[in-house]
Amino acid sequence: MKLIIQRVSEASVRVNENIVGSINYGLLVLFGAKESDSEIEINWLVNKLINLRIFNDKEGKMNLSVSDTGGDILIVPNFTLYADCKKGFRPSFINAAKPDISEPLFNKFVIRLKSESNLKIETGLFGADMKVSMINDGPVTIEIEK
What we know:
Layout: E1 2-15, E2 18-23, E3 26-32, H1 39-51, E4 55-56, E5 62-64, H2 66-69, E6 72-77, H3 99-116, E7 121-123, E8 131-145
Parallel strand pairs: 3-6, 6-7
Antiparallel strand pairs: 1-2, 1-3, 1-8, 4-5
Helix pairs in contact: 1-3
């Protein structure tokens, strides 16, 4: 399982010109899963995400988590995180979990995140053609894989 985490001033996801998820200050998280992923990865990544200290304290040091700041989280499913571009010029997605595996993992990740935090959690729409907008704050972009 892989997360691309971006600290944002704001972020939103549109599907067919309709906003399906929108947050203010917090984290935009792109979520990718592989076939072998399970609840073990979900539990570890949820804990890491809500406690990751990438927000500035009063001295300007990254010492605060999204939980400390009361920020929002927008999670967007994104199978392309497991693109393999080693050969040729067309990415292979052989390492990405198929929808029948990745969608339940995505849903379990969101449920677990909601149960472990009191934060506003929004999501993109699994399997949809999404338009993601954001203002990256910093910029701060972190990749975490378990």
